[in-house]
Write a structure and sequence with these properties.
The complex is a heterodimer.
Chain A: E1 5-16, E2 19-30, E3 34-38, H1 45-52, E4 60-65, E5 68-69, H2 74-80, E6 81-84, H3 96-107, H4 113-119, H5 135-147, E7 153-157, H6 165-180, E8 184-189, H7 192-198, E9 201-206, E10 209-214, H8 216-225, H9 239-247
Parallel strand pairs in A: 3-8, 3-9, 6-7, 7-8
Antiparallel strand pairs in A: 1-2, 1-4, 4-5, 9-10
Helix pairs in contact in A: 3-4, 5-6
Chain B: H1 7-23, H2 26-46, E1 53-57, H3 66-73, E2 77-80, H4 85-94, E3 99-103, E4 114-118, H5 125-149, H6 174-204, H7 207-212, H8 218-248, H9 256-283, H10 290-304, H11 316-322, H12 326-339, H13 348-368
Helix pairs in contact in B: 1-8, 2-6, 2-8, 3-5, 6-8, 6-9, 6-10, 6-12, 8-9, 9-10, 9-12, 9-13, 12-13
The chains are: A alpha/beta, B mainly alpha.
Chain lengths: ~250, ~375
């Protein structure tokens, strides 16, 4: 990979009144990678993400997305990105097909609901309402809405929170497929095992600062090199492996 | 990717989504169609709005004399014969019977012996009966005078030379009054409740935030929602007018033109009422605070704007209040258009006051409306 930056964030600051949520962070996201933004709650992940997504005003700093400045070219950026919000709802009383039609209209792009739902394996739910879906289906549908405008980048804010192991794995596969099709993915998560297997690179955010940015592998190697040892030796498998092994990879629809 | 972004297309996409959503929301359909129709059916069947004076006829009263016959023919007087003397006396005291009459057997050439009991409990209705009776007496008396005249050379001069004429006019049915009022109220509740609920819930469930991550413009969201609500309400109004016209004989003087004029008025009214809805969606913290605030806006207008009874029935001080409310003017304009055949140019006074309300409420709405 040529490591061509598609998102550049320089000295980004965001204040809410006296409270500094983001205190001058800088990082780059490379084209075609899955980039993880990791950190505890209140670290400033979502704020940073929403500023890049043009949903929130920055206080100072520079952000460019696919060559466009968020300050002057928000509209061009909106056409090039797909956004999945944490806990966002969808227009009430509409089924999935109708929601896809709505978003096609909002993006000004002609896509058939069948095509979009097909990408996330929800064709059989075309006539279902969003609230009738299971957790995993809801997240997959949200991802379908982010793909309507053939975005260069999609942003996923905690897409796997609350999902069972099978649904989580299923979503990882979907996210990898999207990356492999050439779309850059920016994701936040609280699950480090997820970041480890899914992300090409991760940045740790804490207290409004970036405190480290690298590939998961190198982070782990560096820590091990310092002589770090787990209190309990890891075995060749963990309990989640047991869970998957016992209950099967087959994804359950509730 | 390079195709020009089309705001109209986005607006229409929202309008279509919103319209579908409204059609599937039971409360919208109930408030906009079912309630007005129920009120219309109930009030249309109470009928005529005419008054009726219930008069008990005492047991054994003579029913062959001309006074009784005249009373029986009078449309206002409702004669009751199937109650016992005791029941009648009790009902008279309660006011559920307005008077009791008793008539002695008719003897030719003798005055008709007659007694009437009135009740304080039944208000003005006693006086109505009194004047009906006087009228009958006068006619009978006049006939007797005429007979006497045949034998006398001295003409008896008339004290009053009364000439009565009846102008032929359209019958103003109660449906002509109640239907525009119900239409106005349907628009008021759809505009206020519907708009407030939709925008509040779209904001709270982050639907609007998700929209903002697309290239859609803010005005497209407002316009799309407004368009859907207007189309839905106009279809509802059309349905109510058609049911009113074909089932209850609601007067539409110039037919289709009148209907179109009414729909224009509906649109104007709805746009103003949606202004209240936008304001409420901004003020309300959550969905449970929408109904109380909305009721503060809708209830006074429901009661005071001539929805069920004419504003002129209120005491003068209350009429002043009524004449400030936007629904009063919408109702007045609607009645003028429907019944008197006025065009929109003839209701400029009402339209002007609605315009003032529109400017006022949207000035407030712009200040209070919240996107996030």
């Amino acid at each position: 990979m040529a490591n061509k930056p598609i998102i550049t964030v320089k000295n980004l600051v965001k204040n809410y009144g006296d409270f500094e949520a983001v205190k001058g962070i800088s990082f780059e996201v490379y084209e075609g990678e899955i980039f993880g933004l990791l950190g505890p709650n209140g670290a400033g992940k979502t704020t940073t993400l929403e500023i890049i997504e043009t949903l929130r005003e920055k206080t100072s700093g520079e952000v460019t997305v696919d060559g466009f400045d968020i300050e002057t070219d928000a509209d061009s950026i909106k056409k090039r990105i797909g956004v999945q919000l944490q806990a966002a709802g969808y227009y009430p009383n509409l089924n999935l097909s109708e929601l896809i039609d709505l978003f096609s209209g909002l993006y000004g792009i002609t896509k058939t609901p069948a095509e979009m739902l097909g990408k996330v394996a929800l064709n059989d739910k075309a006539k279902a309402k969003f609230k009738e879906l299971s957790g995993g289906q809801k997240q997959r549908f949200s991802i379908a809405t982010t793909l309507i405008n053939n975005p260069r980048i999609i942003f996923l804010d905690e897409p796997t929170t609350g999902l069972d192991p099978q649904a989580r794995r299923n979503l990882w596969d979907l996210i990898r497929e999207i990356r492999d099709a050439g779309t850059t993915v920016v994701i936040t998560t609280h699950y480090m095992d997820e970041a480890e297997v899914l992300c090409d690179r991760v940045a740790f955010v804490d207290g409004g600062h970036i405190i480290g940015i690298d590939t998961p592998d190198r982070f782990i190697d560096q820590l091990v090199a310092t002589g770090f040892e787990r209190a309990k030796q890891t075995k060749g498998a963990n309990l989640e492996d047991v869970f998957i092994n016992l209950t099967g990879k087959e994804w359950r629809e509730s | 990717m390079n195709q020009k972004y089309n705001n109209t297309r986005a607006t229409l996409a929202i309008a279509r989504a919103s319209f579908r959503s409204i059609l599937r929301s039971p409360s919208a359909v109930v408030f906009s169609l079912a309630f007005p129709l129920i009120f219309i059916v109930v009030f249309a069947n109470i009928g005529g709005g005419g008054m009726s004076v219930d008069v008990g006829v005492a047991k054994g009263a003579d029913t062959l004399n001309p006074v009784y016959k005249a009373l029986a023919q009078n449309k206002i007087i409702h004669l009751i014969k199937n109650q016992t003397a005791d029941e009648m006396r009790k009902n008279l005291a309660k006011g559920s019977i307005d008077a009791i009459i008793d008539m002695k057997p008719f003897v030719a050439m003798k005055p008709i012996g007659m007694s009437v009991q009135y009740s304080h409990a039944s208000g003005d209705k006693g006086s109505v009966l009194k004047s009906v009776l006087n009228n009958i007496f006068y006619r009978i008396q006049s006939e007797q005078f005429k007979k006497i005249q045949q034998f006398s050379g001295i003409p008896i001069p008339n004290a009053v030379d009364l000439k009565e004429t009846v102008v032929t006019g359209r019958e103003y049915k109660y449906i002509d009054f109640i239907l525009p009022g119900q239409l106005g109220f349907s628009l008021l509740s759809s505009g206020v409740f519907g708009t407030a609920f939709v925008f509040l819930s779209l904001r709270l469930t982050l639907v609007i935030k998700r929209f903002f991550a697309t290239p859609v413009k803010r005005y497209s969201i407002v316009l799309g929602e407004a368009l859907a609500r207007i189309v839905f309400s106009l279809l509802g109004a059309l349905f109510i007018i058609m049911v009113g016209h074909f089932v209850f004989g609601f007067t539409l003087i110039h037919g289709v033109v009148t209907v179109l004029n009414m729909l224009v008025l509906c649109t104007i009214g709805l746009i103003i009422f949606m202004g209240f809805g936008f304001t409420i969606s901004g003020i309300a913290k959550n969905e449970s605070s929408v109904p109380p605030i909305s009721n503060i806006i809708t209830m006074p207008q429901f009661l005071l704007s001539g929805t069920f009874f004419s504003v002129t029935a209120f005491p003068v001080w209350l009429q002043h209040l009524s004449n400030v409310l936007p629904l009063t003017h919408l109702n007045n304009a609607m009645r003028k258009v429907a019944f008197e055949g006025a065009g929109l140019g003839d209701v400029t006074h009402q339209l002007f006051i609605l315009l003032l309300w529109g400017i006022g409420i949207y000035a407030v709405a712009v200040k209070t409306f919240k996107w996030e």
